[in-house]
Design a protein that fits this description.
2 domains; 17 strands; 344 residues; Rossmann fold; globular; Quinone Oxidoreductase, Chain A, domain 1; seven-stranded mixed sheet; alpha/beta; six-stranded parallel sheet; 12 helices
Length: 344
């Protein structure tokens, strides 16, 4: 087999199936047969022509699970189920040489800067492949990459057991962050979200949800006697959220910016000073975070079977991107090249 059908981004709001070459496997690399690939906000940015690095003709996708078709000399064995840590770092800059390659000065990703996983096969270096324990559903395994973001956010936050935690945004990252925070001992997790459907999902997962017509600050002040959240996660990256972060967070509280803002926005730095709040940025994850995410999935500790997903056949990739854009019916839209594994 020399060619395969893959999803190819051809222009703004244009993605379809094209015949492409099966990837050649560089020396020392592995060939992975893709099982599932999640669509995230970055993929939507590419789809809508707003990502600065993506080039027309790209095979997107970086939230991958699959099986090692051809093993590298090192790394997971042939036939192993793996998930991908899709970061591409230079290995030369200060962050890379001091153990922080996830914030490389020249960070790239498979599925953005080079071919990704919305195809039957992808070639990858063995160091980005993580074997998944036997018995894990490859569909659930595809959540490891976004879950690693949540693990990293909670780890960076300095959250303490018993904390009152605020989460702005009930998208995939927001609710995964809420799940990890609860698992790590948060006393109460409060979620705010403009979408009624996503609010219902958050409530179904057992979180306190800010009702329509109210604000996070109002609900938190009622719950905490006017103090605010101990730890606040901004997974929405919306200017209206940035404007509320300091008010929603207590004196000496911690604000964690998880979502990526598309442009600079105002933040009340006077309040940060007067309340001695800490503001922490988060970018992707470390290798340890990916390993921890796999452990959480394998252990069933987050009950991710309740996390709403919907799988589309690779041939229906346009419909998959439309569904992901709508943000309804599924928190995570997946694309699969496996016959008979789509939901519709």
């Amino acid at each position: 087999m020399s060619t395969m059908k893959a999803a190819v981004w051809t222009g703004t709001d244009q993605i379809g199936i094209a015949e492409v070459a099966v990837p050649e496997v560089p020396e020392g690399w592995a060939l992975v047969r893709v099982a599932y690939n999640g669509i995230c906000g970055t993929d939507l940015s590419i789809f809508h022509g707003k990502h600065p690095r993506a080039q027309h003709g790209l095979v997107p996708g970086h939230e991958m699970s699959g099986w090692v078709e051809k093993a590298a000399p090192s790394g997971p064995r042939e036939g192993a189920l793996v998930v991908v840590e899709p970061l591409i770092s230079c290995g030369r800059c200060l962050p890379c040489t001091t153990g922080n390659a996830h914030v490389c000065n020249n960070l790239g990703l498979y599925g953005i800067d080079t071919a990704g996983g919305m195809a039957p096969y992808v070639a990858l270096p063995p160091e980005v492949l993580h074997e998944v324990p036997t018995g894990v559903d490859p569909r659930t395994a595809a959540l490891a990459e976004p879950l690693a973001v949540a693990v990293h956010a909670v780890d960076r936050s300095g959250m303490q057991r018993g904390d009152t935690v605020a989460v702005f945004g009930a998208g995939p990252i927001g609710l995964l962050t809420a799940l990890v925070a609860r698992h790590e001992g948060a006393g109460e997790v409060v979620v705010t979200e403009p979408s009624a459907w996503r609010r219902d999902v958050a409530a179904g997962l057992g979180f306190t949800v800010v009702p329509e017509g109210s604000t996070m600050t109002e609900v938190l002040h009622e719950l905490t006697g006017g103090e605010g959240a101990d730890t606040t996660f901004d997974s929405a990256a919306h200017p209206s959220v940035a404007a509320e972060l300091t008010a929603a967070t207590r004196v000496l509280g911690r604000i964690v910016v998880v979502g990526v803002y598309k442009q600079p926005v105002p933040l009340d730095l006077q309040a940060v000073c007067f309340k001695e709040q800490s503001v922490v940025g988060v970018r992707v994850y470390t290798t340890a975070d990916v390993v921890r995410a796999i452990e959480l999935i394998a252990g069933g500790e987050l009950a991710l079977e309740r996390f709403p997903t919907k799988a589309f056949d690779l041939a229906d990739v346009t419909a998959a991107f439309d569904a992901a854009t709508s943000g309804q019916d599924a928190l995570k839209v997946l694309v699969t090249p496996l016959p008979g594994k789509a939901d519709a």
